[in-house]
Design a protein that fits this description.
binds copper (II) ion, 3 domains, 498 residues, binds CU-O-CU linkage, 5 helices, mainly beta, Immunoglobulin-like, 6% helix
Amino acid sequence: MTTRRFSWTLALLSAWVSGTSCAGSTPSEATAADSTGDSAAAAASFTGTLWIPPALSGTTFDLALAKATKSLRPGALTNTYGFNGGDFWGPTLMVQKGDDVHINVTNNLPEPTTTHWHGFHIPANMDGGPHQIIAPGQTWSPHFQVKNRAGTFWYHPHLHMKTMEQLAYGAGGLIIVQDAEEAALALPRTYGVDDIPLVLTSRRFTGTNQFDLTASFGDYLLANGVIDATVALPAQVVRLRILNAETERSYRIGFADGRTFQVIGNDGGLLSAPVPETNVTLSVGERIEILVDLSKEPVGRELTLQAFNGGLGASFPGGESETLGEAGSLLNDRTFDLLQVHVVAATPGALTTVPAALVKNTYWTQADATHQRKLTIVESADGMLFTFDGAGYAMDVINQTVALNAIEAWTIQAGPTSGHAFHIHDVQFNVVARSSGALFSWEPGWKDTVFVPAGESVTFVAQFADFASFTDAFMYHCHMTNHEDGGLMGQFLVTPAP
Ligand code: C2O
Ligand code: CU
């Protein structure tokens, strides 16, 4: 599958480069090269140019979610959801640490939704969880101060039992937090040029080109909503901000030529120093930022970013051997392409080196924790339903109560057959232990989502600071949206000091 052919034209390339060379280019510019569907175009027309979501910046943001359609395959259009008139996914919100931001989210769907700011440290009633419902035709206007460090975050629906469906239709977007510490580093940060957002998911299609929402694993990879995506990258150090926005699949990400890249950040921001790797596993909801050195590559060189998902066994999400049925997929248990890279000329002032050090982080350790908590994931007999400690999610039940400012160690124990992508709202944590032994090399750092393999446990430490309430709860859940919708979710109050 690395033999997929591409026909590049200079016109397409320069249209793409000019259309995205300034952050904030309009959606129509950014999608121009991506809109196909004319009968003269051969099958290759559905192999698209990577769409770069338009960037919005400032302190007031307007988002409107509505039904849309997108040409994803020859024949019928696919029903989708998009923000702000887009045909899948939404704009990237660029925010500055310390700013007070106001967001107006209008729900133009014919059904309720919510919009959650994944990874943000904000008050529970601004969080956009299952309680902050936006009725059809209504606008929800949360506001909060950006307290997170520079990093890659995202927004998505969180309506109980509808998260999988609404996200699968395309209701989501990225948030990039910028701050002075990050700005002081020599890192690529020209959005859409040397700083590329890459949202990975996959879908199965019905015979009429609609998303098959019964599938936990898609058959076709979508990179920023584009099948068989290609991107033009300049011959210099480039940054990829990768989000796993899947239903269930993990991605073991690397380059086809086995080249080393540098991991510079994960969910909650930059690491203390780059970590060299040839592949990194990203589970649902996790983000990673990597630097790839293309400065020695000749213009015209083609590279392929792939998922090395073969031979990992059925406990790896997407490692299942079947190709059909609820857990089957044409992408299961194999290596497949994520993104084709076409190297173009370097930009003026191109970066050609990777900084040796990044930002100063002081992570919590096990010894800092003053309270221990353990959550055990219980599997139903048929292996299809999961709960925390045997209790499914109920909107009016508080499952955990944490004292404001407590530093706690939470241990998540997975059941024997299925791994899970555990996510907690409000905090960024540091993973301190895996029952299987060592942590992944890029894992120490501020995170909000962590993969817990079948039969294993993971312990993290976090402080629950700043925001307390006797009434408004934060969520914790598996980010595999089918598991979450099925009840693998709980909620906690952070209560004020007496
Ligand atoms: Cu990304 Cu509770 O969510
Ligand atoms: Cu799960």
